[in-house]
Structure prediction request, 475 residues.
Amino acid sequence: MRIPGIREDVVEKLKFMFEPDSVAVVGASRDPEKIGYQCLRNLVEGGYEGRIYPINPNASEIMGLKCFPSVLEVPGEIDLALIVVPAKIAKRAVEDCARKGVKAIAMITAGFSEIGNKEGEDEIVRICRENGIPLLGPNIVGIANSWKKCNASFCQSLPYAGKTAFISQSGALAIALIGWTWLYRVGLSSMASIGNKADVDFSELILYFGERDERTNCIAMYIEGLDAGPEFMEACRRVSPKKPLVALKAGKSERGVAAAASHTGSLAGAPLIYSAAFKQCGVIEVNSLIELFDSALALSLQPPMLGDFPLIITNGGGAGVCATDAAERYGIPISDTPPDLRESLRKYMPEFGSPKNPVDITGMGTADKYEGAIREALAHPGVNGLAVLYCHTAITSPMGVAEAIYRPYSELKPQKPIVAAFIGGSECEEASSWLKERGIPTFPSPERAMRALSALRAYGKIRERFGGAGAIKRA
Ligand code: COA
Prediction:
């Protein structure tokens, strides 16, 4: 049911959804194959320290926890009820939650508007709204909060911890991408699966993560369709000067629109309208899941790029050419190194190197040469952002170069962004993870590094446009 405008009280109450002190799993199952068992196990094994109440009238104990036949029998308060009973008994479960005074509901149960059961869905929303209970879903995978260690979902684990809040209109995608957060070290503060968004909508989640959640400094969204467009834009306008918002709008092709309609009942709408709206309200649009994750990684770790001069430092001419092409494609064209900087960079390369942009310290570029060049670039006022590219050679170890990047970065604490690309095998992968854990977004290709830097420039422009002009430190 469309929201009647942004509800500030709902935004406020979302703290019970994402930072609950107690969770009831309504439909906690004894059967390890069932979703209701997995949700309970995720809370217990994820290390959640709040109170957990399994609700099941047919069981007395699951995983050593006492079961209650209904939320009404629970002795303490319930912040979040995670509903995992079939659709036909979900309404009864919601009525009990209302009677109990449950503060928020996340409903995993499918079988509502996405299959034409709009009436059943509206009935549940009506009960929740009459009782002031925010409802997330139905038809979701659940929610996860990594710092609270609250995995109220049937995702395989908590996400890798970090500062991006991920709002996904696809539950299955959210589950799969939790794996990516570990693999690519893209840290999430929270994950919210929004499903049919029968009640709580994108706008309210954006405002919660944007204005009330200090653990979040970037919001990433997978969107199939919006049905409360003006509210979405209002929320983004409010948040974008403070925290970056990045979105992947899926369902752009003719067949994609139809697929989105049958997936979450969404009206995917004309792609150009979405792109124009994103621009107006300060949302950075990306075109693939990889771009969404890469941009979120960079935006959550680094300050925006204020100004149009990125410098590229590389030990491989080819990597520099690829990065230059990518930079132009992504809207941050490369121009010549200022003469004074050119002069000082000369010290860190052989005669046949090039101090032009890209700065090529050549295959003879050892870790100390990288470090010297990086120090010069970070200290130069004309450089607005830095991309360090490294091709694995026999004369340098990836970890040595990683340290050569990190040392000046941690000492100089620059108010300008830095990204890196480590091109090579497993040793590069290891060095990349080491850098990411220390706040430097690192990618396996020059193109991905430049795409990430372009997201930081896009956010710099948004901050300039909306008035939040000063650079902000994110790491
Ligand atoms: N209150 C609480 N629990 C109750 C109950 C009640 N009133 N009545 C029955 N239960 C218990 C059942 O006894 C069962 O536990 P048990 O296995 O120990 O007997 C448990 O609740 C689950 O009920 P069950 O009927 O077995 O449901 P299910 O596990 O087969 O399916 C859903 C429930 C919610 C998972 C299913 O209906 C569904 O919607 N699946 C799709 C979910 C999905 O994909 N969401 C979108 C993700 S992207």
Q: What stands out?
A: Residues 17 and 227 are 22 Å apart (CA to CA). Residues 26-27, 29-31, 34-36, 55-59, 84-86, 89, 93, 108-111, 139-141, 171-172 surround coenzyme A (CB under 6 Å). Residues 469-475 have pLDDT under 50 and may be disordered. The first strand starts at residue 22 and ends at 26.
